[in-house]
Design goal:
It contains 14 helices and no strands. By secondary structure, it is mainly alpha-helical. It has two domains: 73 residues, no CATH class; 223 residues, MetI-like fold. The longest helix has 39 residues.
């Protein structure tokens, strides 16, 4: 296994180089740059714009800009945000906790409900429960996250039951430690429901389909012929194989920690990485975009590696090759 992991880590290097190079080129192909908006401001002189272009290397060819950025990355420096005039690492670090808490909580919420519900509707296939929950699942998959966020925002505004957007209250700094935790938890409820609902719908359908497919396999029919109950067959034999795709999905979920909630964060005014990345794309803050993409790519690759390792531990039929 150690040799396999080492090979995968070595393969990360050309993969990351390809991802970052193509991303840098595509971002640079967009018309204008961050300084284009400054040029429309008559209060900013041409000398100031030229100085900023020279300082951030925007007056140089794209390939030179990329290799200079890559040289900084090799020295564990992701560069400086043009818009915020702050180091990209510091900027990402200041918002990472909010996004990680939100994403991890929504993943845990979705998975803890989707898996047992998927098992239940598969066990009672074609029942009223199956039809109702399947309809709700399709409904949840069809509604975009940002639209659902608008609906919940309107609901919070009308009822006053939940905070209307934001990560914490205006008097957050005056609260005690326990009150700060509870305040953040209250502000987490709406985005947690929004993100968890859409994720839960797809996972429930996946679990239902996997169990229905595997419960009709030859070894499941053999277990029934031996007199085992349907509950024992599902939980002891079927579920163990049906869970494999979820382990693979877990690797992708790790990569989605940074930007997976961008639109929801923007709608609900949450101070997270997703909304910051969205703003960076709109303003063409290239070094902030590249820093976020690099971290997201590393998380995605490492997540898939961990998922592959977990699959070999859960399913002995899968070999490390």
């Amino acid at each position: 296994m150690g040799r396999y992991i080492l090979k995968r880590l070595i393969h990360m290097i050309p993969l990351l180089l390809g991802i970052t190079f193509l991303s840098f080129i595509i971002i640079s192909m967009a018309p204008g740059d961050y300084l284009s908006t400054l040029k429309m401001n008559p209060q900013i002189s041409k000398e100031t714009i030229s100085r900023l272009a020279s300082e951030f290397g925007l007056d140089q060819p794209v390939y030179i800009q990329y290799f200079k950025w890559l040289w900084q990355v090799l020295h564990l420096n992701l560069g400086e945000s043009i818009a915020y005039r702050v180091g990209v690492i510091d900027l990402i670090g200041s918002r990472a906790l909010n996004t990680i808490i939100l994403s991890a909580a929504s993943i845990l919420f979705a998975w803890s409900l989707a898996i047992p519900i998927g098992i239940a509707v598969a066990y009672w296939q074609n029942s009223i429960l199956d039809r109702i929950l399947s309809f709700l699942a399709f409904f949840g998959m069809a509604i975009p996250n940002f639209f659902l966020a608008f609906l919940f925002l309107y609901f919070a505004l009308k009822t006053g039951w939940f905070p209307v957007g934001g990560t914490f209250s205006y008097d957050y700094d005056t609260l005690t430690a326990w009150e700060k935790i509870m305040d953040r938890a209250r502000h987490l409820i709406l985005p947690l429901i929004v993100l968890g609902t859409s994720g839960m719908a797809g996972l429930m359908r996946l679990m239902r389909g996997n169990i229905l497919e595997i419960k009709n396999s030859d070894y499941a029919r053999t277990a029934r012929a031996k007199g085992l109950s349907e509950v024992v067959i599902i939980f002891k034999h079927v579920l163990r194989n049906a869970i494999n795709p979820f382990i693979t999905l877990a690797g992708y979920e790790l990569g989605a920690l940074i930007g997976g909630a961008a639109l929801v964060e923007a709608v609900l005014n949450l101070q997270g990485l997703g909304s910051m990345m969205l703003q960076a794309v709109l303003s063409q803050d290239i070094y902030l975009i590249m820093g976020s993409l690099l971290i997201g790519a590393i998380l995605l690759i490492v997540g898939n590696l961990l998922a592959d390792i977990a699959l070999t531990l859960v399913d002995p039929r899968i070999k490390m090759e």
